[in-house]
Amino acid sequence: MPTPSPASLGFSAASVPLLSAIVGGVLALLLFADYFRRKRAEVAMIAPAAVPDRSAADHKAPKPAPSAAKKSHPRSHSHHTDKDQNKKHHALDVNTLKGHGDAVTALCFSSDGRNLATACADGVVRVFRIDDASSKSFKLLRINLPAGAHPTAIAFSEEASSVVVAAQLLSGASLYMYGDVFAKPNGESKQQAKLPLPEIKWEHQKIHHKSSVLTLVGVCATYGSGDGSTILASCSEGTDIKLWHGKSGKDLGTVDTNQLKNNMATISPNGRFLAAAAFTADVKVWEIIYSKDGSVKEIVKVMQLKGHKSAVTWLCFTPNSEQIITASKDGSLRIWNINVRYHLDEDPKTLKVFAIPLHDAKGSVSHYDRISISPNGKILAVTSGSTLQWLCAETGRVLDTAVKAHEGDITGIAWAPQLIPMGGGPTMGLATAGADKKVKLWLAPEHHSS
Predict the structure, then answer these.
(1) 275, 284 in Cβ contact below 8 A?
(2) Domain ranges of the chain
(3) What is the Cα–Cα distance from 234 to 244, expressed in whole angstroms?
(4) Which has the closest alpha carbon to 142: 105, 177, 117, 166?
(5) What superfamily in CATH does domain 91-443 come from?
(6) How many helices (H) and strands (E) does the chain have?
(7) CA–CA separation, 377 vs 392, rounded Å?
(8) Which mean pLDDT values do the consecutive 10-residue runs of the chain (450 residues) have?
């Protein structure tokens, strides 16, 4: 038997590892091929599961043919009506007053609740006639402010016959009083067209130096020897607050909160007290003293509300002028009894404390930007950013909440002082203004004493 040559033995030794590598590679490819085949099978089983749902949805809601769409015009009108209704995202949302060219900065009702005046950053004051809160259109009176005047606050004066507007100019804050501002009822449109536009009856320039006016409120002075004239309070963003006679424009006096800055100020409904929310947790209250002839004699600081742990953002008097409701950044609402013998050093008393029942997205307690109490003293309307909420004034219980009541921050809130007409009968109504160029009318929620 021939002996193999060394060359052939070398070839065989080298071939074995090579063949092993080839066989191993083939086996690995077969294993990977089998793995991917099984994964494709799984995907193939999953994918069809979504297909029947989609086809079922298409089957349930087929697209109308073009001819059918043309024939269903009444149905299309109904669709638009539904769309309009969807815009009223809350059951208490009654109507929206449009036509403002910029953010609405303030609003107020006349004493009879039939006229609603709005101040807008476009330099126009609008007075809407509320003959029916649910109406599709309203009679409107436009008042163009002097060039360069940007209104920041507004109040009715002399019942409903005139409005006083606070506006900011480069030189500082000014007050303008316009007379004969009735927005006439619909039946008087012809006569209204012949009437001259409202004129400025009086004005004051640089009333708070360079500071702008944050709030302006007017009430009829009926307490003591008050003769029923309108008394106005303009609160600056600085530290001063000024009183004015509504009809004559006379400067009645100035008080200073002696704090870093003011948040707002208001007068009690009977014209007796002036109260201010400012930078600190304390609220200062002054009494307006009237002479026998009805004129303002002096303004005297008479009490201070102490109890909040952080700045008071807003306050309001109850309709009987005997209590003050305050909202604070400490997350609470307080009701104070100010019907005390302060001349005998009797301090005002805290009657109730409510935790603010509103939280932000992170769960932190929100603070209220504005609060306003209903004419019957039972419902407290409050705002925080774009949220509007109604609380029971007696218990602090939440009656209703409208999240995103406006498409932006709410800039003003006011209850109609009288019942306003809506549909078949009168109702208690609320108005809100927003940075979204809109004013909204709202119904009051149902309230049952618990």
Answers:
(1) yes
(2) 6-82, 91-443
(3) 8
(4) 117
(5) YVTN repeat-like/Quinoprotein amine dehydrogenase (2.130.10.10)
(6) 4, 30
(7) 9
(8) 48 55 64 54 36 36 40 38 55 94 97 95 96 93 95 91 96 95 54 68 94 97 93 97 97 96 97 96 97 94 97 98 98 97 92 96 93 98 98 97 96 97 89 98 83
